[in-house]
């Protein structure tokens, strides 16, 4: 599962990291420490430039809307439900299959947030008590401080109620690919709390290591089995996770203070 993440790097920095050839300054996004579904997010993708005589794929940095709308959808209303695509089944799903074969991207992040329900509150929930479980958020990020390159898919959708030249006639949307959370030890584990990503949540975004970036973005690669081989989770020990304040649970809160590391879970949210 990936329903919230942080993305604060400048487009110039991302362009250098991913060897981007083309990006538009007018598409610059503000740093966002609480990225939520339906927001615009940065994506790295390769495709020919619009109206260019040279039809070779060009690596681009684009601003896309998070929440994939299939090209055949009658309306974009279901976008908020299409924020994730499961690595194990996306090649079978009508909403994702064509994009998997032809429209793959990387969604760069500082890391992602995941929530854990405290054990005492889980006991109350199982016992049928009315107390609503309170969840402790964790921030999961590469242990070495590098960019988290989340595997993604993108798609085009045409709003046929608008003329083709209208700026909102075409939507470009995306989805984060998720996989099973690593059960092995974290690269840096907190003194108190989860010792592996699977302790926090059974799913996580699929992080692509740099050796897979070129193959994943290459649109000429369309063979299903070879592409599925790129969906293997990276080796364990690459990530760290730490508790952050519950302020991140409200999407209206935004700022670098959301990433402040707590010494342990907040009171009432013990893991």
From TrEMBL:
Keywords: Covalent protein-DNA linkage, DNA damage, DNA-binding, Hydrolase, Lyase, Protease. It comes from the Bacteria. The lineage of its organism: Bacteria, Bacillati, Actinomycetota, Actinomycetes, Kitasatosporales. InterPro entries: SRAP, SRAP-like. Pfam families: SRAP. The keyword Cytoplasm does not apply. It is an enzyme of class 3 (hydrolase). Belongs to the SOS response-associated peptidase family. Its EC number is 3.4.-.-. It comes from Streptomyces chengmaiensis. This is Abasic site processing protein.
